[in-house]
TrEMBL record:
NCBIfam families: Phe4hydrox_mono, PRK11913.1-2
GO annotation terms (biological process): L-phenylalanine catabolic process
A molecular function (GO) term: iron ion binding
Catalytic activity: (6R)-L-erythro-5,6,7,8-tetrahydrobiopterin + L-phenylalanine + O2 = (4aS,6R)-4a-hydroxy-L-erythro-5,6,7,8-tetrahydrobiopterin + L-tyrosine
Protein name as catalogued: Phenylalanine-4-hydroxylase
Naturally occurring in which organism (per UniProt): Piscinibacter sakaiensis (Ideonella sakaiensis)
Binding site for Fe cation: 134, 139, 180
EC number in record: 1.14.16.1
Length: 294
């Protein structure tokens, strides 16, 4: 599965520091090889086939309006032109994971840092660092939606504050359960909007179709108490009522919440809380079997 960038930051191990202080590099679009474009095509085609009835409307619309197709790895300049006109965002190339403060600074200024490299053909279903497929296919369509555009900018600003307060792990959980692994209610049922799901063939099916994981209504303090898995499918997916709920999050002052939440016990990745609004009680089969295999 595609682990995405929930572990942006130095702790995750970052690439060698590039010469620009904001860690951006040129995408070097003309340097992509035919094999790399072919990898993009494989990923694009198999993921696109899965998304009808599973991706939320905003994702579908965003994808449709952007210069993204199967034929080649997208050019960040062309993406940015369309994004800038719609929501004021742009995509900038980085060599891989960047330090937290660099990541937040970019988001706070409506720049989405995207890995410029693409995974190797033998690692189509698993990679440690976010590549161009995860970052562009998974994240960029949602940046076309005004609620996500504002929410992600607020997250960048909040990240810089959380870092000063020593509360980054709590904030990172909010990012993880929304931007990376979030589900949203729509008229037809639950749909994905999180990039970690949208860019992963196996997790798209697991998050939406499998009986195993719990699906729980998103609740901010609850999510801030909840540890998450970075090395496997999630045991709980959190569901927002609509994307406007994220816009409400963008307006909340997290500082008093950090204190309140820190006074309560943490929850393990698959642990339900009595106060949860449970949309689907998972069987837990997948993680139980994984644990049994050791
Ligand atoms: Fe990501």
């Amino acid at each position: 599965m595609d682990r995405g960038s929930g572990k942006h930051g130095l702790a995750a191990g970052v690439a060698a520091r590039p010469s620009r202080p904001d860690w951006t590099i040129d995408q070097g679009w003309s340097n992509y090889t035919a094999e790399e474009h072919a990898t993009w095509r494989t990923l694009f085609e198999r993921q696109t086939a899965l998304l009808p009835g599973r991706a939320c409307e905003a994702f579908v619309q965003g994808m449709r309006a952007l210069p993204i197709d199967a034929a080649r790895i997208p050019d960040f300049r062309a993406l940015s032109e369309v994004l800038r006109a719609r929501t004021g965002w742009q995509v900038v190339a980085v060599p891989g994971l960047v330090p937290d403060e660099v990541f937040f600074e970019h988001l706070a200024n409506r720049r989405f840092p995207a890995g410029h490299f693409i995974r190797r053909p033998h690692e189509l279903d698993y990679l440690e660092e976010p590549d161009v497929f995860h970052d562009v296919f998974g994240h960029v369509p949602m940046l076309m939606h005004p609620a996500i555009a504002d929410y992600l900018q607020a997250y960048g600003e909040g990240g810089l504050r959380a870092q000063r307060l020593g509360r980054l792990p709590m904030l990172a959980r909010v990012y993880w359960t929304t931007i990376e692994f979030g589900l949203v209610r729509e008229a037809g049922g639950l749909r994905l909007y999180g990039a970690g799901i949208a860019s992963s063939r196996t997790e798209t099916v697991f998050a939406l179709d499998d009986d195993s994981p719990h699906r729980v209504a998103f609740d901010l303090p609850r999510v801030m108490r909840t540890r998450y898995r970075i090395d496997d499918f999630q045991e709980i997916y959190f569901v927002v009522r609509d994307l406007a709920e994220l816009l409400e999050l963008a307006r909340i002052d997290f500082a008093p919440l950090y204190e309140q939440v820190a006074a309560q016990p943490e929850l393990a990745p698959g642990e339900l809380d009595p106060a949860d609004t449970l949309l689907h009680r998972g069987s837990g089969r997948y993680h139980r079997e994984r644990a049994a295999r050791g």
